[in-house]
UniProtKB/TrEMBL annotation:
Family named by the database record: Belongs to the ABC transporter superfamily. Spermidine/putrescine importer (TC 3.A.1.11.1) family.
Phylogenetic classification of the source organism: Bacteria, Bacillati, Bacillota, Negativicutes, Selenomonadales
EC numbers: 7.6.2.11
GO molecular function, one term: ATP hydrolysis activity
Quaternary state and interactors: The complex is composed of two ATP-binding proteins (PotA), two transmembrane proteins (PotB and PotC) and a solute-binding protein (PotD).
Role, per record: Part of the ABC transporter complex PotABCD involved in spermidine/putrescine import. Responsible for energy coupling to the transport system.
Annotated keywords: ATP-binding, Cell membrane, Membrane, Nucleotide-binding, Translocase, Transport
UniProt protein name: Spermidine/putrescine import ATP-binding protein PotA
Organism: Sporomusa termitida
A single GO cellular-component term on record: ATP-binding cassette (ABC) transporter complex
């Protein structure tokens, strides 16, 4: 039985449909990211789960209990906001103890649980400091400890790492994931950062215009996106307009606008008839460049227009058939292999591309 369910959840603000009858189901202990552009409905979903908003229709179910009519304080949900929302006049220990004190627990038990939470987020020695005396990463840890110390059924995170600088953000991603796995707590994380969602999640729900477009593991969504929106939003993709040709020796031939043909395994084009117009999606890191046409391989000819160096990789923008194709290559000690203006040939493993409906 699923631990967390959204059943036909719908929400409108005036005439604006924010959530369009969405359904979602995950098991206990799952780290789920709600990923999508601004205005797609992910934060509204989180607010409904927390009890700050009410749905117009549908249910929120946690551990078999319908949450719709429960007030916020009875939902046993821990939430970390983007701004952390710490009490500035309280110390670290007092901030973490606040939720336990509201539950009127024994003072001795509160002290013990606060000490455990402080140790868990590696803030021992900071108990008497105020939020203004802490760094951004330390404040984030306090907010996380305050959410976890109440032993919630759900941990809700609303863009809670976005205020940190890049290096600290990466470090906190690792710490957050380790704590979540150690506690086994079901977590729902709202983000618009694709890399963050891929790093942290067991499951990702990609949202657009109040709908869940695709729900799957990070690996499955990245390698086998179900639509051009998902392929373009989660990482980068190159899109080629193609027409499916007849099956040839167990492989489908895809014809591009310039007459070039790319062949795919038959299973990659399953269910599509000859003549069907489709989109071929290829990730930039899947493409290789060669100075000469490779023998026995399908390839496209192009010309390097622009190169950006990014340390371990270089990004190439190559003009192919009047369009721009992005290619990402690992840098080597031998130096730059191509330069702007070079004619190059683009190849990739057919298994590294995805055929999508137009």
């Amino acid at each position: 039985m699923s631990y967390f369910l959204l059943n036909n959840l719908t929400k409108r603000y005036d005439s604006n449909l924010v959530l369009n009858n969405i359904n979602l189901s995950i098991e206990q202990g799952t780290f789920l990211s709600l990923l999508g552009p601004s205005g797609c409905g992910k934060t509204t979903t989180l607010k409904i789960v927390a009890g700050f908003e009410s749905p117009d229709a549908g249910e929120v179910v946690v551990a078999g209990e319908v949450y719709n009519q429960l007030p916020v304080y009875r939902r046993n949900v821990g939430m970390v906001f983007q701004s952390y929302a710490l009490f500035p006049h309280m110390t670290v220990a007092q901030n973490i103890a606040f939720g336990l004190e509201q539950r009127q627990l024994d003072p001795g038990l509160i002290k013990k649980q606060v000490a455990e939470a402080i140790d868990m987020v590696q803030l021992t020695g900071f108990e008497k400091r105020k939020p203004s005396q802490l760094s951004g990463g330390q404040q984030q840890r306090v907010a996380l400890a305050r959410a976890l110390v109440i032993r919630p059924r759900l941990l809700l995170l609303d863009e809670s790492l976005s205020a940190l600088d890049k290096k600290l953000r990466v470090d906190m991603q690792v710490e957050l994931r380790q704590i979540q796995k150690y506690l086994g707590i079901t977590t729902i994380f709202v983000t618009h950062d694709q890399e963050e969602a891929l790093t942290l999640s067991d499951k990702i729900a990609v949202m657009k215009n109040g709908n869940i477009i695709q729900l799957d593991t990070p690996h499955a969504i990245y390698e086998k996106p179900g639509s051009t929106f998902v392929a373009g939003f989660l990482g980068q993709s190159n899109f080629f307009q193609v027409v499916v040709k007849a099956l040839d020796q167990g492989r489908y031939c895809l014809e591009l606008g310039n007459g070039e043909q790319i062949r795919l395994p038959a299973g990659a084009a399953a269910g599509r008839q000859p003549g069907a117009a489709c989109i071929l999606a290829v990730r930039p890191e899947r493409i290789s460049l060669a100075a000469e046409r490779p023998a026995g391989k399908d390839c496209l000819c192009g010309r390097v227009k622009f190169i950006t160096y990014a340390g371990n990789i270089s990004n190439f923008r190559v003009e192919v058939m009047g369009s721009e194709v992005i290619v990402q290559l690992q840098n080597s000690f031998s130096g730059e292999r191509f330069k702007t203006g070079d004619e190059v040939y683009l190849t990739w493993d057919p298994a590294g591309s995805v055929l999508l409906d137009e």
